[in-house]
UniProtKB/TrEMBL annotation:
This is Peptidylglycine monooxygenase. NHL repeats lie at residues 465-500. Residues 698-740 are annotated as: Disordered. The chain crosses the membrane at residues 663-685. Binds 2 Cu(2+) ions per subunit. One of its GO terms (molecular function) is copper ion binding. Its cofactor is Cu(2+); Zn(2+). PROSITE patterns: NHL. Residues 41-150 form the Copper type II ascorbate-dependent monooxygenase N-terminal domain. In the N-terminal section; belongs to the copper type II ascorbate-dependent monooxygenase family. In the C-terminal section; belongs to the peptidyl-alpha-hydroxyglycine alpha-amidating lyase family. Keywords: Copper, Disulfide bond, Glycoprotein, Lyase, Membrane, Metal-binding, Multifunctional enzyme, Repeat, Signal, Transmembrane, Transmembrane helix.
């Protein structure tokens, strides 16, 4: 996970360390540290789904409190379905004994202090933060509860090691649990939900620093939210799949829960193939819906005794209906069934805070209309050359990538796929090749002093395999930093790279070869990378985690080619420009064309703008032509700054990447949109270079544009997009991602 570098330290150890405030805490001396082992003393469950408990007395500390600052579970998911730790004044089952859990505590209320399942790793709390036990606190015993999947003939000694500190901690940790008490998932249901919501009535502020989800086999995602008392401010606390290690994942930073705020949790299930209903219950064959919030509050604060809330069945109250209408539509999305390689970083990057108006459901064809905006743009007398890319920022500004007076046509590359001697002899393009337009379409000044952040491949050297690229046509970047390249004109493939440029996998068509993979779009909620297979006039999508081709569709409306694709998560629509000379609104699941719009001569690139309320289409003829289209029904949402709140995690990541570049304009503009990492790096490659040895089709950077272009696809960072078939497939001539 990545936080703003000025406020957070990034800790990387072979265990889960939650990010800590940059201010340093005094280190514990050896005398202040100890480990308390809370162990099941040889439990022998006699039947499946047994819940057994034991307890351990908190060590004496001269009458002073101790603080739990870390947890290490010593069990295995083959034995324990889950392990819970509770704090008690007095336990139901005495130390050294094993018994039915019953009421957990015999006196005083029970407080959850830890939960573990599915081989979650060790957990360390943020510095200066700990659970208060012993001394004058209400926790004098720690109760361990183990849910055993099956009966056992051998005694079990599942345990949790508690890392204790005797040093008083400035912040007290606690857990707030949201859970469904009842509910059912019907057979065959997809994206079925169980919802829990309540109003927080505690007297002290809670600041979440971690969250955990728990459910059973049908669950595909659980997401939690904090809502302001007027329901106008909606913040996502976190989301994860219960099929992953059920650890405490880092929560979104900067969230405070105060008296009067609402808390909401949604559990999403897939009952495809099931023949009977599944109900909320205690066995592993039933279902559950639990969302844990691990929080901190200043030491000594009065929290009260309310540490959980629950619900069951549909809540038809007016208050509940109002609340759930504010929850984003993407709360229904599935998460990957297999945990990403770094699920902790993935969870942190995937959980962006969202405020205000939620994402709408897929727009109906009748309500979803696209219309050209007249008298746009107004380039102020500047003539555009061949436009090979276009991108949009959150405030309505548009970035155009064009070739100035340079025209790429037949013969741009020789038979060995290298840039022709004739083009090399022309040297650099002298005009500004990256232009910025304000919201009205007027041209603004754009600084050229920006540098690429990452380069892959060798300038003017076509390559294949893991070595590089050959005339790539496009690239997009996921919110996790993975880069997808349409390696289009020579290698006919899509390549996936890691954030550091390392090769991860390549994608080929499930029924043959891609013929000029020309443009890419990501449907990140479904983990899909989609390509415009230009000369086969179709779109194909792969799951980038499994490599499987999951969607492939064509339509007579595509004509004989598809040049560009884009995806709008706000409208849940895919858009395409085709060889038929039209723009198309496409169902991203079925491929059905919902609407045709526009009339173009040589359409080439496109972008979603203004939070889904506008589309941009670039034509590559000379002079270049740029169109803007309004999308009806989404303006109110797209004009809200709330739409861009979901991209803050990527912004913070970008800031970390460039913090040493000393390019103040680059850092400032990065706050606008993750895509601008690409646009600004491309600015260096505008070919107004002092080095006369560099040429317009030379070196290619993952954060440079190219004879291809730049587009914004809701936080993804496309980089290059290549030319039309009239230009003899004149893509960048070397094994990187190209200059202009």
């Amino acid at each position: 996970m990545v936080f703003k570098s000025s406020q957070w330290q990034i800790l990387t150890l072979p265990l889960l360390l939650l990010a800590t405030p940059a201010c340093s805490a005094p280190a514990d001396t050896p005398e202040q540290q100890q480990v308390l082992k809370v162990e099941m003393p040889g439990a022998a469950p006699t039947h499946d789904d047994s819940y057994l408990c034991s307890s351990t007395k908190v060590p004496a500390n001269a009458g002073k409190e101790l603080y739990i600052v870390g947890f290490q579970a010593l069990s295995d998911m083959s034995v324990a379905h889950h392990v819970l730790l509770y704090g008690c004044q007095r336990p139901q089952v005495e130390p050294g004994k094993v018994g039915d859990c019953g009421g957990i505590c015999s006196s005083g209320g029970s407080k959850i202090v830890y939960a573990w399942a599915r081989n979650a790793p060790e957990l360390r709390l943020p510095a200066n933060t700990g659970f208060v036990i012993g001394g004058a606190s209400s926790i004098q015993y720690i109760v361990i509860q183990v849910h055993y999947l099956h009966g056992r003939s051998q005694p079990d000694r599942s345990a949790v090691n508690l890392q204790l500190s005797s040093r008083p901690q400035p912040f007290t940790a606690g857990i707030f649990l949201m859970m469904a008490y009842s509910g059912s998932i019907q057979p065959g249901a997809q994206h079925a939900t169980l919802d829990v919501s309540c109003k927080y009535s505690g007297s002290s502020e809670m600041r979440p620093f971690a969250f955990r989800t728990h459910a059973h086999a049908l669950s595909r995602a659980i997401v939690g939210y904090r809502l302001s008392p007027d329901l106008q401010d909606v913040q996502e606390i976190g989301r994860a799949s219960p099929q992953w290690a059920q650890a405490f994942y880092p929560a979104r930073p900067g969230i405070s829960i105060r008296n009067g705020d609402y808390l909401a949790a949604r559990c999403v299930y897939d009952a495809t193939g099931e023949t009977q209903a599944h109900h909320i219950g205690s066995t592993h064959n039933d279902e559950m819906c639990n969302f844990y919030i691990m929080f901190s509050t200043p030491a000594g604060a009065k929290l009260g005794d309310i540490f959980s809330c629950g619900g069951g069945g549909p809540d038809a109250s007016t208050e509940s209906r109002r609340l759930w209408r504010k929850i984003p539509q993407d709360s229904l999305d599935y998460l990957p069934s297999e945990a990403p390689a770094d699920a902790f970083a993935y969870a942190a990057k995937a959980t962006a805070p969202r405020k205000g108006v939620p994402h709408p459901p897929p727009a109906a064809a009748a309500a979803h209309k696209v219309a050209a905006v007249p008298d746009w743009p107004r380039p102020g007398g500047r003539q555009l050359g061949q436009i090979s890319g276009v991108a949009a920022g959150p405030d309505g500004r548009v970035f155009v990538f064009h070739r100035g007076a340079r025209v790429w046509g037949p013969g741009a590359f020789d038979p060995d796929n290298r840039l022709s001697d004739a083009l090399q002899s022309e040297g650099a393009i002298n005009e500004d090749t990256v232009l910025e337009l304000d919201a009205s379409g007027g041209v603004l000044k754009f600084s050229p002093d920006h540098k690429p952040l990452l380069t892959v491949g060798v300038r003017l050297t076509p390559a294949d395999g893991k070595r590089g690229f050959c005339q790539p046509a496009d690239a997009v970047t996921s919110s996790a930093g993975d880069v997808f390249v349409a390696d289009g004109y020579c290698n006919h493939r899509v390549v996936m790279l890691g954030p550091d440029g390392s090769f991860k996998r390549e994608f080929q068509s499930a029924d043959g070869v891609l013929v000029v993979p020309h443009s890419l779009a990501l449907i990140e909620a479904d983990r899909l990378v989609c390509v415009a297979d230009r000369e086969r006039a179709r779109v194909e999508c792969w799951n980038w985690e499994t490599g499987r081709s999951e969607r492939r569709f064509a339509s007579k409306e595509f004509g004989d080619s598809v040049y560009a694709v884009a995806y709008s998560p706000e409208a849940r629509q895919m858009y395409a420009v085709s060889g038929s000379g039209h723009g198309l609104t496409v169902d991203p699941t079925s491929g059905a064309v919902r609407q045709a719009w526009g009339s173009f001569t040589r359409p080439h690139a496109m972008a979603v703008a203004a939070g889904g309320a506008a589309l941009l289409v670039a034509e590559i003829q000379v002079p270049g032509r740029l169109w803007k289209f309004s999308v009806s029904g989404l303006t109110a949402q797209s004009n809200s700054p709330d739409h861009f709140a979901g991209q803050r995690t990527v912004h913070e990541r970008a800031l970390v990447l460039v913090r040493d570049s000393q390019a103040s304009l680059l850092i400032g503009l990065l706050l606008l949109l993750p895509l601008l990492v690409v646009v600004l790096a491309v600015a260096l490659l505008k070919l107004r270079r002092r080095d006369s040895g560099r040429i317009g089709a030379g070196r290619k950077s993952l954060l440079g544009g190219g004879p291809g272009g730049i587009r914004d696809r809701e936080g993804f960072q496309p980089l290059t997009q290549e030319d039309s078939d009239e230009e003899a497939e004149t893509g960048p001539g070397a094994g990187g991602l190209g200059d202009a």
